[in-house]
């Protein structure tokens, strides 16, 4: 059976940069609070006319150009997002249309911050079994339009940003390279600790003025609990990846964690026993872009020359659900 390799990556963020000072003019917060608690300095927000699918398209065109491929070379789209452009259909078909394609399958993965690794697991299974050869794996989010930009929403509004990152995946016959493993986890007992209640068909009507007045269409988070579980379960997922592949922390060239909070990433680094140069962090520029954060960070790391052929890459994520996941990749 072939392994799955990363053929090319790409990312795109909107031009509009929003600073912490700009947020502190909208709500009762401060640059100092945001930097100290999260490590975030800026994030990017969409402007009129931009959508999740348009960000994903721009990221995809960069990756295709790097791989010297055309949209028509793609066999399948796996689109990971928790901020779809519309309630239905899923965003994969909108991206397919933006790429000028009409005849490839498009699946949406709704696993929030863990979405990219969940999607990688799906793509990896399809590639290894030969069902699809060239899979476009997308993590793309537009959070800014959904944020409560008043003091009521400050605990989440300052954290999230918009952006898209993609990977083009395909089979390799080199047994030493490619995706070595993916580990996926979920525990729905914590579903309401980070969630958007409405619109939802559990409500009748599924959206109403009352639901909106109560702010139930906004992301609500029990930040302390999310922080606590993330700090424990992300390291556990990394350990699962290391043990399954008989590798030690010293063997890891680069850990690319989901960029939720600099302090969480520091706790993961400490728990695993990694040096600073083994962990990639770019949250200061983009904030938390949920499913897009790992592919954006991975593409930046690659552009900075942080991974060479044969290096060991580990990915880990944690988020709403709770869901968490890891992947090990021989580059
Ligand atoms: O992507 C995966 C999902 N998300 C996460 O992983 C996020 C996990 N959680 C976190 O990153 C942190 O919990 C936060 C950054 C959200 C908050 O940091 P914290 O150190 O846990 O702060 P806290 O929630 O304990 O709040 C401390 C204080 C509170 O005031 P009181 O009750 O002590 O008077 C909050 O009301 O900070 C207040 N606060 C703010 N103050 C200024 C909350 N948000 C803000 C804000 N600006 N934006």
Quick structural overview:
The chain has 331 residues and is α/β, with parallel strands linked by helices.
Commentary on this structure:
This protein is α/β, with parallel strands linked by helices. The protein folds into 2 domains: 3-172, 3-Layer(aba) Sandwich (Peroxisomal Thiolase, Chain A, domain 1), CATH 3.40.47; 178-330, Peroxisomal Thiolase, Chain A, domain 1, CATH 3.40.47. Helix content is 33%, strand content 23%. The strands form 4 sheets. It has a 5-stranded mixed sheet, with helices on both faces. Bound molecules: oxa(dethia)-CoA. The site of oxa(dethia)-CoA has 20 residues, from helix 2, helix 6, helix 8 and strand 12.
Over the alpha carbons, how many angstroms does the gyration radius reach?
19 Å
| Cofactors and ligands | oxa(dethia)-CoA
CATH superfamily grouping of the largest domain: Thiolase/Chalcone synthase
Helical residue percent band:
25-40%
Question: What is the CATH class name of the largest domain?
Answer: Alpha Beta
Strand order of the largest sheet: 1-7-6-4-5
In the CATH hierarchy, the third-tier topology of the largest domain is known as Peroxisomal Thiolase, Chain A, domain 1
Structural class: alpha/beta
